[in-house]
Amino acid sequence: RAIYLKDYQQPDYWIETTALSFELGEESTLVTSTLNFKLNDTKTHAQLPELTLVGENMELVSVAIDGAVLSGDQYKVDSEQLVLQPQSEAFETYIVTRIKPQENTSLEGLYKSGGMFCTQCEAEGFRKITYYLDRPDVMSIFTTTVIGDKDKYPVLLSNGNAIERKDLDDGRHMVTWNDPFKKPAYLFALVGGNLEFIEDTFTTMSGREVTLRIFVEPHNITKCDHAMRSLKKSMKWDEEVYGREYDLDIFMIVAVDDFNMGAMENKGLNIFNSTCVLARPDNATDAAHERIDAIVAHEYFHNWSGNRVTCRDWFQLSLKEGFTVFRDAEYTADMYSRTVKRIQDVNFLRSAQFVEDAGPMAHPIRPESFIEISNFYTLTVYEKGAEVVRMIHSIVGSEGFRKGSDLYFDRHDGQAVTTEDFVAAMEDANGVDLSQFKRWYSQAGTPVLDVSDSYDEDAQEYSLTIKQSCPATPGQDTKLPFHIPVAIGLLDGEGEPMPLNGEGETTVVLDLKEPEQTFTFKADERPLPSLLRGFSAPVKVNYDYSREDLIFLMSHDEDGFNRWDSCQRLAINVLMELVADIQAGRELAVDPQLLAAYGKVLADESLDLAMIAEMLLLPSETLLAEQMDVIDVDAIHQAREFVRGAIAEAHKERLQQIYNSLNVDKPYQAEPEDIAERRLKNIALSYLVELDDAASVELAQAQFAAASNMTDSIAALSNLIGAVHESGKAVAEQALAEFAEKWADDTNVMNMWFSTQVTDSRFGTLAKVRELMEHPGFDKKNPNKMRSLVSGYCSGNLVNFHNISGESYEFLADEVIRIDALNPQLASRLINPLTRWKRYDEKRRELMLAALKRIQQQDLSKDLFEVVSKSLA
Ligand code: ARG
Ligand code: ZN
């Protein structure tokens, strides 16, 4: 059942042109396809090979080749494919099929969301639309005619430019679209619905005017402006930084409520999960605004990194995703704060991708095999993939990287290529050898660097010895050494950066290539090392820092990322010591050094507000869990709450002062400084409500009443829910009710309302989750809702999910089984928390295993089968 990279072969036939016609109907939709095939003459053929087209869940109405209708004995068809025997090297097929989009709950292929028709074809959804060579190396010119009822579906869209529109005399109308660029079927898109749009224009660097449109259901028309601004900024940025220009006359975005992922880069017609595009200050948080900006940019950037140059096969997914995530991260860094963006990305990588790398589904960024490709749209392929591209960027420098990307786009425009091709372009443009570096593409797991140092007083030499290793992962017991760029700096006793080379540079990138290597520097005193600056490689670093060292780095390191990281290390250090104290039944006390360090951060005038905010956030429970061989969720939760309370006690006045100084009434702006102010203010409030103090509840209550933007409103709500003081309860209930009434018609706001409740450890019990699943604003089929409530609880409320009764495991198993019958992609993501069973104590391990085995007993989708069987292996 598994497919292997090593088995890749070119197809026997190519498809030169694809003409499709869709008659959208309520009972069924008729799809007519006219395909022009040509034998792949780079392959040797003894005779004309059979043509195997894939297709699922469709009724074959008729099939003809070169105008001759085939009788039943002239083709073979089953539930997965249609097999034809061509009679010549070039021929045309004419295939009519019938599908039922209104019954398609998998959200792959053509389906209905709300009243509208829409598609999601990546990775292998096109085969649910019509019989085709549904593989990314088959690139074709598409012409698409969409026919539908004019009242119900006044808007009919597909890829490219509209070339013809006309009304039919039966109340229907039709629009024909042509996409002049060759593309694989996964980039095909179609939309039909009653939509409104906002419009703008962008003039490209060569002076072409492009029409930009965002289509939404009428009630969402006021929520599109932010995304439109983001789109224009991204178009400009890609011209400036990569020299890439948009290539069609029109660029369209459509928002849909039912969507498995974030968004999709279909050529000229991006389709977005509505949470990733709709935002107005009053109904979307700052974080949502930033996420939308990044996703709009990401999908836009795919026009080059993904569409003009695409993937040869799905093992190459990181070719487009890793590169495009890197591109969107750099865009965000340029638009907001570079250091803060880096901190947030690394935090995410460590608390989620490192976990994946250590779990049963661990895979290299270019996997070697898969059962279901949808399961490989992972943090590893995306985020670690982006880190790998970032390392290339740091090895060749930004000018070298631009030379490499220019060569890559130029060399491979219109082609379906591999990660090897990408690396080769970087090598050729820069005359560097990345052969050892390429192991990052084929070896899974998070490398570990063990760093030690010594100082030779007489020679005035400082030596750093770095040993690399990488834990075994499924199917890969041993690893070869990686080429790891390790950026470092050295601090003298005053905290000043020491020059590291003749040019007086204070940060250098060490090329670690051996299992163990020593690097020596001239130094007139023993320095303190600042390691892996800017997180120059996706690895773990062990170095025996004392708490004093970390506190010193927190205030002196010239590398902003490492100032934050030293704070993280210090907090992890203290928290894990408390976890051990809890397990041993010892009395708890927070190291005063930690409290003093936080006091210093709170008072540091040199830090910008965004940095203070990041430093104040303690490592998440998930990240702390990763520090333990056997995860003790209760002790982790208790330790973390204890430290939060202690910080609040120790710095109450300062926190109040910060809160009050930032809690001023001013018009909302989604600008970096405003965002930082709101963030810091709300973090201060979250500490204050840790105090058993009615005044803190009153602050949150007042903020809730006065808030005119969603960031402040939802923060106030969640701080009321989380407040320690008794008076918080009634106020929280009242606020929740008011909020739900106000936002009943805004589905995405209601999703926040759901998740805010179930992620709180005291409020969000399993009973609460069950109760909310029956709420009229909930929909048990909708991925966004299921993620808010079920994943919100199972991944965001660890103490309750892992309650020793095991009832939450049973609950999750039930939900996974129920969803798998409707939407396999969603099911195989929901199950994730259960797959980590090996990391828990014996009792929980048994309970989680029992839940997994019960799932395994069912008749499973490929998606879920792969995840369950790998977790149990
Ligand atoms: N290519 C899209 C993006 O990252 C994601 C589409 C994923 N779809 C899927 N069925 N897994 O921008
Ligand atoms: Zn992408």
From TrEMBL:
InterPro entries: Aminopeptidase_N-like_N (IPR045357), Aminopeptidase_N-like_N_sf (IPR042097), PepN_Ig-like_sf (IPR038438), Peptidase_M1 (IPR001930), Peptidase_M1_dom (IPR014782), Peptidase_M1_pepN (IPR012779), Peptidase_M1_pepN_C (IPR024601), Peptidase_M1_pepN_C_sf (IPR037144). The gene is pepN. Gene3D superfamilies: 2.60.40.1840, 3.30.2010.30, Neutral Protease Domain 2 (1.10.390.10), Peptidase M1, alanyl aminopeptidase, C-terminal domain (1.25.50.10), tricorn interacting facor f3 domain (2.60.40.1730). Its cofactor is Zn(2+). It comes from Parendozoicomonas haliclonae. It catalyses: Release of an N-terminal amino acid, Xaa-|-Yaa- from a peptide, amide or arylamide. Xaa is preferably Ala, but may be most amino acids including Pro (slow action). When a terminal hydrophobic residue is followed by a prolyl residue, the two may be released as an intact Xaa-Pro dipeptide. The keyword Metal-binding applies. Residues 548-873 form the Peptidase M1 alanyl aminopeptidase C-terminal domain. This is Aminopeptidase N. Aminopeptidase N is involved in the degradation of intracellular peptides generated by protein breakdown during normal growth as well as in response to nutrient starvation. GO terms for biological process: proteolysis.
